[in-house]
Structures are given as structure tokens and as C-alpha cells.
Design a protein that fits this description.
Distance between the termini: 48 Å
Helix content: 40-55%
Strand order of the largest sheet: 2-1-5-4-3
Number of domains: 2
Number of strands: 12
CATH architecture of the largest domain: 2-Layer Sandwich
CATH superfamily of the largest domain: Histidine kinase-like ATPase, C-terminal domain
Oligomer: single chain
Shape: elongated
């Protein structure tokens, strides 16, 4: 699919470039042709106005740019050559040219079969017709076509290479999203496969006649079903965040109060783990966003600290102003997060080795928090130093 998408991008790009080149070269050709024609007509009219002014020997009149010759028509239709740069001794050929020019019915025209442009003029000396050679004009146009063809061919080759590069660059986000989607489906399938296997196994045991552990099997099914419900709810929440549900609920939020309120339900939980919870929230910090989703971010960070913090130590929640932005941090003591894990910890279903235990964690919480923070035009990251793991959230303030 991605290969077809890149090929389609290249084809569309090349068609656009080809269309632009054709229009541009067409305009250049048309303008040049019209200029040459206008110059030729001006010259012939100037010559027709003064048919006897040939200039000094070896020189042309100032207006003359092309080889020409002039025919004067007598009262009885006889042809009287009056000058020019051709041998005018062939009366039959001159009569043939005159008849061909008259047959067009135009005062100014082209005799392409002879390679001449003609111009009829009436003056004090009678009717005059000027014939100008078009070979140099045609040669100029042919040279222009060859030049445009060469430039166009080189340009198309250059744009082809550029298009191939741009196609790879443009499709890269799609390729990344496609890989993430495939990985997401694989991870979600893996997370659902294990509890489903447990449920099926215990259900089959319940169907066994005289099975003595029916109560334990039913309890196991209930426990695993609740875990699956938690996973499905997390997936649905992540889908809602991806679909932009955060943007529809933007309002002015008192972040100081929100953080303080979010900490309260976790205090007894941390107390049970012998981990004092210290909250230092600067007052009066407000942001624009969704209160429910920002509370969810705070709860995800607190829940993450509850799962992975190790006693003894102290869990610290801080909210402080940093110019036009604010910084929320949740620090907990515990095993240091490896540098490679710090880069990947916000990816969906990603869990560090120390987290691979039965803790009802599916590696989606931090991913949900990252998406919410991004929708609020903020940043989220993690740091680990001196036995303390700290998660930071930076958001723009409203005042």
C-alpha cells in the first residue's frame, strides 16, 4: 500500500510539473512567435510605404530585418518588381506568388508552401505587395522548440529525482502511523489473548462434571474479565483522545485546585505503601483546557507513581509557574528508568522490564497522558536521576 501511495505521489507531482512546463514553454513560444510576426509585419509595411528606398549600396533600411522583395501592380494588372534581395527575373514564379496571395483574401498572410509572408498596401504609387522570407523566423522558432525540449527534459529528470525524495519524505508519517497501527493491533491482540485464554480454560473446567474448584474458577473468570474491561476502557479512552474529544471541551481551568483535589484520593493509598505524599501546588495557576482530561493526566501520573515507587522514600507532587507556562512534576523513589526506556515509555503498550508483572497495567496510561498534553499544546517527559523518577508536564498558562 505504501509503495502504491509513493508511486501515486510521484505521478501526481510529475503531471503537475509537466503541466506547468507545457504552459510556461507554450507561453514563451507564443509570445516569441507573435513578436517575430509583429516585427516582420512592421518591416513590410515600412518597406511598402517607401518601396524605392533601398538605402546605400550594401546596406538595408533601418527597419529591414528580413530578406524581402517588392512587387508593384500596374493598372492593367502587370507586375513591376521594384526591388529587394532576390532575383526577380522569373515572371512566372512572381505571378504564381501573387495569385497565391490574392487567393487567401487577406491583406496580410502567410504562404507556408513558399516560405513567405506577404503584405498588400495601397499608396500614391499604386498597389504594392511585399514578400518577406520566413526561413530565419522559422529557424528561430525551431531553435526555441529544441531549447525548450532540452530544458524540459532535464527539468523533468531533476523533478523526478526530487519527487522520489519528496515521496519518501511525505509518506514517512503515513508509514510510521501504519507501523504504529499494526503494532497497536498486535499488542492489543496479545493483551487480550492471555485473559481470554484464562477465561476459556476456567469455563471448560466449570463444564467438567464433579470439578471441585468451581468457586476458584468462577473467581478467576471474574477477575480476568474485570482486567479485560479495564483494557477495553483504556483503548476506548485512547481512541477518544486520538479523535480530538479534548478540543471540544476547552475552558479556563484552575490547575492549582485541580492538582490538589487529584492528590487527595491517593494519600491513603500511598500511606498503605509507607510512602508519604507531599503536594506543593502554587496557587492561582490557570490554564485553558479540558478539566476532566487534565485531571486524568494528574491521576495517571499519580497512579504510575503508586505502582512503581519503592519505600522508603517520599512521593512529591509540585506545580509551579515558569513565566507564561507552568510545570507539573511527580517524583517517586524507585528503580532507575533506563535511558532507552525514557525515550519509549510514552509509546502505547510499552512497559519497561521492571513493570512486567501482574499489576493490571497495560502500558496505555502514559500514552493517553501524552496525547492529552499534546492536545493542550504542552510537553510531557520523564527523567531519572539519583534513585528518583520524575515525570514532568509543561502547559501554557492563561494569566
Amino acid at each position: 500500500m505504501l509503495r502504491r501511495l509513493r508511486l501515486k505521489f510521484i505521478c501526481i507531482n510529475m503531471l503537475m510539473v509537466l503541466a506547468v512546463l507545457l504552459v510556461m514553454f507554450g507561453l514563451v513560444f507564443q509570445i516569441t512567435r507573435q513578436d517575430l510576426e509583429a516585427e516582420s509585419v512592421r518591416m513590410m509595411r515600412a518597406v511598402a510605404a517607401e518601396p524605392f528606398r533601398l538605402g546605400r549600396p550594401g546596406e538595408r533600411p533601418e527597419e529591414v530585418r528580413l530578406p524581402y522583395f517588392v512587387l508593384r501592380l500596374g493598372e492593367n494588372g502587370e507586375i513591376a518588381p521594384t526591388g529587394g534581395f532576390y532575383d526577380l527575373s522569373d515572371d512566372a514564379f512572381l505571378q504564381e506568388l501573387l495569385d497565391a496571395a490574392r487567393a487567401t483574401g487577406a491583406a496580410i498572410g502567410v504562404l507556408s508552401q513558399y516560405g513567405f509572408r506577404f503584405c498588400f498596401e495601397s499608396g500614391p504609387w499604386g498597389d504594392t505587395i511585399v514578400f518577406a522570407d520566413m526561413s530565419s523566423e522559422q529557424s528561430t522558432l525551431n531553435g526555441l522548440v529544441r531549447t525548450c525540449g532540452i530544458i524540459g527534459g532535464v527539468s523533468l529528470l531533476a523533478f523526478l529525482f526530487i519527487s522520489v525524495f519528496l515521496a519518501r519524505w511525505a509518506v514517512r508519517p503515513v508509514e510510521k502511523a501504519w507501523d504504529q497501527q499494526r503494532q497497536f493491533v498486535a499488542d492489543a491482540s496479545h493483551e487480550l489473548k492471555t485473559p481470554l485464554t484464562v477465561i476459556l480454560t476456567n469455563a471448560e473446567l466449570l463444564q467438567t462434571p464433579g470439578y471441585a474448584g468451581a468457586d476458584r474458577a468462577a473467581e478467576s473468570i471474574l477477575t480476568v474479565a474485570r482486567q479485560m474491561r479495564g483494557l477495553v476502557e483504556s483503548l476506548l479512552e485512547l481512541a477518544r483522545v486520538d479523535n480530538g474529544s479534548v478540543k471540544t471541551a476547552m475552558a479556563r481551568v484552575d490547575l492549582s485546585r485541580l492538582v490538589s483535589d487529584a492528590v487527595l484520593p491517593f494519600e491513603p493509598l500511598f500511606f498503605e505503601k509507607d510512602l508519604p505524599l507531599d503536594c506543593q501546588a502554587e496557587s492561582g495557576i490557570t490554564v485553558k483546557g479540558s478539566e476532566a482530561h487534565l485531571r486524568q493526566v494528574a491521576e495517571i501520573l499519580l497512579d504510575n507513581a503508586l505502582k512503581y515507587a519503592d519505600a522508603p522514600g517520599r512521593v512529591t507532587v509540585r506545580l509551579e509557574r515558569r513565566g507564561k507556562r507552568c510545570l507539573l512534576s511527580v517524583a517517586d523513589p524507585g528503580e532507575a528508568i533506563r535511558r532507552e526506556d525514557l525515550k519509549n515509555i510514552f509509546k502505547r503498550f510499552y512497559r519497561a522490564d521492571r513493570a512486567r508483572r501482574t499489576d493490571h497495567s497495560y502500558g496505555l496510561g502514559l500514552s493517553i497522558a501524552e496525547r492529552i498534553v499534546r492536545e493542550h499544546r504542552g510537553k510531557i517527559w520523564a527523567e531519572s536521576a539519583e534513585g528518583v523518577n520524575t515525570f514532568f508536564v509543561e502547559l501554557p498558562t492563561t494569566g
